[in-house]
Amino acid sequence: MEKQIKLFLEFLENDKKLSTNTLQSYKRDIEQYQEYIDKNGLNYLKVNSSDIENYFEVLKDMNKKTSTISRNLATIRAFYQFLLRTKKIKNDPTSGLHSPKVEKKAPSILSSQEVELLLEQPKNIDLKGIRDKAMLEFAYATGMRVTEIISLNISDVNLEQGYVVCNTGLKKRTIPLGTISLKALKDYIEKARPILIKDESITALFVNVNGKRLTRQGFWKIVKYYKEQAHITKDITPHVLRHSFATHLLQNGADLKAIQTMLGHSDISSTQVYMQFQNDDLKDIYKKAHPRA
User: Fold this and answer.
1) pLDDT single digits (tens) 218-264
2) Which of 69, 85, 101 is the last residue of a domain?
3) Is residue 102 assigned to a domain?
4) Residues 6 and 59 placed together within one structural domain of the fold
5) Is 145 marked active-site?
6) Nearest 5 degrees, angle CA 271-CA 61-CA 84?
7) Is there a single domain that holds both residue 182 and residue 233?
8) Is residue 272 part of a domain?
9) I need a surface site. Which of 30, 80, 85, 156 has the fewest CB within 10 A?
10) Cα separation of 207 and 214, whole Å?
11) Does 187 share its domain with 57?
């Protein structure tokens, strides 16, 4: 990939006659994309639109401006059109992607009571209920992105020490698990997952009823189902649980830098967006910061 990037930048400079500043922007964007490709063990010649959308989700979670994400799309699209022109690929994976709309709004969050209500919905009466309970508790306990959660393998979780290692995204991070989440996860791993998986070679942590790795769409449907069961009127997505995780920690006195680390934000300014929800009367240590720790 490094060689093709070099040829791509030379093409932009010599054939397209781009300015030095514009070339530097292209270089930064494509090198950051290369870092993501390498980090996640992807083949840049075989990626599809979903892989690239996942990358943009990471950028969005880093609170990159819409204009920055649009520029990244333009850069990556230009790169794949170059590869298409030089016959390195047969199809452009960016052809069906659209630039994000310019829209700025505060993160949508749930109250602690709404979270409790949502997480009480899955019942440990069948395999699906045990899995769903573990998954929702896990999402709220870790604040991980949906893409990161469905990408987890069983080996990424340390039940003895009570933490999970996230290898997806731009950098690796370790996130602690609260006691309630840990118990639900143990129940799932011991009682449900061994029965759900049909093939012992399956490494995915969370699987669907067919024993395959859970998809983004599958995760979203599960959240939507329990939102309706709880009769919560707010629009709830897996990302709302991530926002709620960060906000509730901050409201209860958790250190902003620690929250930044757990969320995987490269820039503290991305985490500071949650400051608008802070209650100055609530000051406590991390153990008390998370409602279900």
Assistant:
1) 999 999 999 999 999 888 887 888 888 878 887 777 777 777 777 77
2) 85
3) no
4) yes
5) no
6) 150
7) yes
8) yes
9) 85
10) 5
11) no
What does the DSSP 8-state code read for residue 204?
B
Q: Which one of 44, 140, 242, 274 is the catalytic residue?
A: 242
**Token output for 283:** 């000051």
* 101: in domain: no
* Residue whose tokens read 């950028």: 59
The answer to whether residue 242 is catalytic is yes
Q: Which of 71, 173, 286, 292 is catalytic?
A: 286
Per-residue pLDDT of 67-96, as tens digits, reads 889 899 999 999 999 999 999 999 999 988
Ranges of H-type helices in the chain:
2-14, 20-39, 49-61, 66-85, 112-119, 127-142, 146-151, 179-187, 193-196, 216-229, 238-251, 256-263, 268-271, 286-289
Measured CA to CA, the distance from residue 125 to residue 58 in angstroms comes to 35
Range of the domain at 41: 2-85
- CB-based contact 131:192 (threshold 8 Å): yes
Same domain membership, residue 137 and residue 21:
no
Domain CATH code at residue 46: 1.10.150.130
Residues 62 and 52: their CA atoms lie apart, in Å, by: 16
Tell me how long the chain is.
293
Identify the bridge partners of residue 204 per DSSP, sorted by sequence position: 153
Q: Are residues 138 and 283 in the same domain?
A: yes
CA atoms of 159 and 219, how far apart (whole Å): 22
Rounded to whole angstroms, what are the CA distances from 6 to 13, 28, 47, 153, 187?
Answer: 11, 12, 20, 35, 50
Inside any domain, residue 57: yes
